[in-house]
Amino acid sequence: MAGVVVCHGTAAVRERIVAAAHGVPALAPVRSAASAEELLALTRRSSPALVLLDAHLPGAGPIEAMRRLRETDTPPIVVMIAVTGDEITLDRAIALGARGYLAPDVDRSELAAVAAHSLTASVVHQAVAEPDGNHRAPERPPVELTRREMEVLIGMSHGRSNSQIGADLFLSEDTVKTHARRLFRKLGAADRAQAVAIGLRQGLIR
């Protein structure tokens, strides 16, 4: 491995994870960042193999940070640091390629498991390859969505509820649900998270 970057906006959490990571030789060198901007600058200089990323990262935020990490020459593996209630962020992060998540109180043994398996296994501790836990299905051919369906899908990718999307687009919630059902059918998606994941992989949304 080329080391790990612990990127967390809370100093106490960041320092505790860094201390635990120092106890895992395979993770060396261990570096830290407090924001998306610091993480991206550090990644461009050092090309870490693994990033532990705060689901509540300040600044550009975790999703934008992941998008920018994907554009680097050697994108690192990303594992989110998240808690119960972070499901929307986790769904979007996994759709962008995050390997999974760990709790903020992750210990040295869990980090050692990540070091041992994250570069070769499809999952890490507490992590799933897809939001539904299944293996990724073969890609469907690109589809064409209507303007409204695209707007609804974009709203979903931003973590907006149906009622919030309706308010944004001046549509009723029932109308949003109708557009959602149609775009699910076109994409072959079972739910919002899978629709966003397919949309991202097919380049329909970013």
End-to-end gap: 29 Å
Number of helices: 9
Helix content: 40-55%
Structural class: alpha/beta
Task: Give the uncertain stretches in residue-range form.
Answer: 119-140
Supply Rg. 18 Å
| Spatial arrangement of strands, main beta sheet | 2-1-3-4-5
Largest sheet: number of strands, sense, barrel closure: 5 strands, parallel
Globally, the shape reads: elongated
| Overall pLDDT score | 82
Sequence of secondary-structure elements: EHEHEHEHEHHHHH
Count all strands and give the number. 5
Strand content: 5-15%
Structural write-up:
- The protein is an alpha/beta fold and 206 residues long.
- It is built from nine helices and five strands; from the N terminus they run E-H-E-H-E-H-E-H-E-H-H-H-H-H.
- It has helices spanning 11-22, 36-46, 62-70, 87-95, 108-117, 147-157, 162-169, 173-187, 192-201, and strands spanning 4-7, 30-33, 50-54, 77-81, 100-102.
- A five-stranded parallel beta sheet has the order 2-1-3-4-5, sandwiched between helices.
- Strand 4, helix 4 and strand 5 (100-102) form a beta-alpha-beta unit.
- Helix 2 runs parallel beside helix 3 and helix 4 packs parallel to helix 9.
- The chain is elongated, with a radius of gyration of 18 Å.
Could you give a short description of this structure?
By secondary structure, this protein is an alpha/beta fold. It is 46% helix and 10% strand. Residues 119-140 have low confidence and may be disordered.
